């Protein structure tokens, strides 16, 4: 682009905010698209929560990590420098990565990890997206502390499809463990049992006053009366879908996964790991003589243990008087297993589907797939004792009964250089090999198969995928995330999907467009997407324990005929295995 400004390095939050302001306010229209450079130093930093001090793996010593701010159309360069003992990758969750699959980040899928003392620059352009996304580590359970917001502002001189808010505030939900989560998942995989659960949920890294030894670690959102605030909600928790509510305040949902939706009002919302939701909060017209709790607590539909606790922040009106000792009001969250509430809530989402922000739903389907998603078992290794669900087995998870095994070489490199032999196969089943009553009494044999199997799609294939939850080891909600694409949720229901009746109920006009959507407990969703992005794209449950157990697979999208439809060669600094 003519007169393109020199890249600006933004090493700190203060500099980021300063330069973001400078960039947003001083660059003329003809130089609107910028290159934004960040450095993410992966380092240990001590943090204390619940009277437990832990050395966390962080970006730049921050927990949660720093904001990545860009405008639609900007090029982003993030140099990740690994100063810790663990291998690292970073995933830019929800960024389309059009022809930049080398920058997507899932370990052993699009890259080998960044090893100790090494660096890698993620290079991508944000195309046709604006809103809230998140970045997080994509290797083992390291994202428990390695996460932060991605804030994509509209292009210069473009406005929101709603009234400009007075202020914008990221709200990140997370989980705190008093012990190292890497030890938790290592123990679970060794014993075959379910993992130990987190000790607290957090709002912007703080558990809040409902936990012991935590009153001082409470997030306070200070507001003025008569204003509209945009809250950028992000669920970065490892294993838990969360309800969220602010006492005596209504929230207007305006965006999901960086796609505008038809606005709707709620008192309580659900947000699953990997999902983002932008809401408008209208404050009360006058100073109320109260403070208001913001609560987040779990939605859990499965069997076994979970962290059944509640994180609290406080909404505080900046009162002109010094007397701030007002009563605190608490909202009431739904019960933890409120599946009917969840289904009703998710049905409210509709794409804006306007002339400016159309919903380009594939109307004609080239290929149809039916994938079962759920838990299963694996045999215990010889001469060991396992603590899985039954008869000396291990917990496992699968798609179409294939529990995906991550290779020791990255899939994308193997595919690009034609060296798939011994790394992956392209025979992932399009349907379950053995159909059964998916949501009824589970079959006697719950053993899964293992493999590194993929589906190959020709460029621009329109795909319809039905994701069917199973009742094996308990019907459970599964937030499924697809890398490299947004998809349209054209249908959902409980029970077994009926291919003869259910398609007549599909919404092909204004379905919600997302990158992460929940497969209902004991039910199904149908999604459609256009395979217009060449590369290897991971799809997995965003409950990390299910991913670790194998509820994951990969799509390979072949190059298209045009130069801008081909995956370029890998960058020279791509990490080696």
Automatic annotation (TrEMBL):
Keywords from the UniProt entry: Apoplast, Copper, Glycoprotein, Lignin degradation, Metal-binding, Oxidoreductase, Repeat, Secreted, Signal
Entry keyword Calcium: no
Cross-referenced Gene3D superfamilies: Cupredoxins - blue copper proteins
Residues making up the signal peptide according to the UniProt record: 1-33
Enzyme Commission number, as recorded: 1.10.3.2
Similarity comment: Belongs to the multicopper oxidase family.
Official protein name in the record: Laccase
């Amino acid at each position: 682009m003519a007169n393109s400004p020199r890249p600006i390095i933004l090493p700190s939050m203060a500099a980021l905010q300063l330069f973001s302001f400078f960039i947003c306010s001083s660059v003329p229209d003809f130089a609107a698209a910028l290159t934004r450079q960040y450095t993410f130093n992966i380092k240990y930093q001590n943090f204390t929560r619940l009277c437990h001090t832990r050395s966390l793996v962080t970006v730049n010593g921050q927990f949660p990590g720093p904001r990545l701010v860009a405008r639609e159309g900007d090029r982003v360069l993030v140099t990740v420098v690994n100063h810790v003992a663990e291998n690292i990758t970073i995933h830019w969750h929800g960024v389309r990565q059009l022809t930049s699959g080398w920058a997507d980040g899932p370990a052993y899928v699009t890259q080998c990890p960044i090893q100790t003392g090494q660096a890698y620059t993620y290079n991508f352009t944000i195309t046709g997206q604006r809103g809230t996304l998140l970045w997080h580590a994509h290797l083992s359970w390291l994202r428990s502390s390695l996460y932060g917001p991605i804030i994509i502002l509209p292009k210069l001189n473009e406005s929101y499809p709603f009234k400009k808010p007075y202020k914008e505030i990221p709200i990140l939900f997370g989980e705190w463990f008093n012990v190292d989560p890497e030890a938790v998942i290592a123990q679970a995989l060794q014993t075959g049992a379910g993992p130990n659960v987190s000790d607290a949920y957090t709002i912007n890294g703080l558990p809040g006053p409902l936990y012991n030894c935590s009153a001082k670690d409470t997030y306070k959102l200070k507001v003025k009366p008569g204003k509209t605030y945009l809250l950028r909600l992000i669920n970065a928790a490892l294993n838990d879908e969360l309800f969220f509510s602010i006492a005596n305040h209504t929230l207007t949902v305006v965006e999901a996964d960086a796609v505008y939706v038809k606005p709707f009002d709620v008192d309580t919302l659900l947000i699953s790991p990997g999902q983002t939701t932008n809401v408008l909060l209208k404050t009360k017209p006058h100073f109320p003589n109260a403070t208001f709790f913001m609560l987040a607590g779990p939605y859990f539909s499965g069997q076994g243990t979970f962290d059944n606790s509640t994180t609290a922040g406080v909404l505080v009106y900046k009162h002109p008087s010094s007397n701030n000792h007002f009563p605190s009001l608490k909202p009431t969250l739904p019960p933890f297993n409120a599946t009917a509430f969840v289904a009703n809530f998710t049905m409210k989402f509709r794409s804006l589907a306007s002339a400016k922000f159309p919903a380009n739903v594939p109307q004609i389907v080239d290929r149809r797939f039916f994938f079962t998603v759920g838990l299963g078992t694996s045999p215990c290794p010889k001469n060991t004792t396992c603590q899985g669900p039954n008869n000396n087995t291990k917990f496992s998870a699968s798609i179409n009964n294939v529990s995906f095994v991550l290779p020791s070489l990255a899939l994308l490199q193997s595919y690009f250089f034609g060296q798939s032999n011994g790394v992956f196969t392209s025979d992932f089943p399009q349907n379950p090999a053995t159909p059964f009553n998916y949501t009824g009494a589970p079959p006697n044999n719950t053993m899964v198969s293992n493999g590194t199997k993929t589906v190959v799609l020709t460029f621009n294939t329109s795909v319809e995928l039905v994701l069917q939850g199973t009742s094996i080891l308990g019907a459970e909600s599964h937030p499924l995330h697809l890398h490299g694409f947004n998809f349209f949720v054209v249908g959902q229901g409980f029970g077994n999907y009926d291919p003869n009746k259910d398609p007549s109920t599909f919404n092909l006009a204004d379905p919600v467009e997302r990158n992460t959507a929940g497969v209902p407990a004991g039910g199904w969703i149908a999604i459609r997407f256009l395979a217009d992005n060449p590369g290897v794209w991971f799809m997995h449950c965003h409950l990390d324990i299910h991913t670790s157990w194998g509820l994951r697979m990969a799509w390979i999208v072949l190059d298209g005929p045009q130069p801008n439809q081909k995956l370029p060669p890998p960058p020279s600094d791509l990490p080696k295995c």
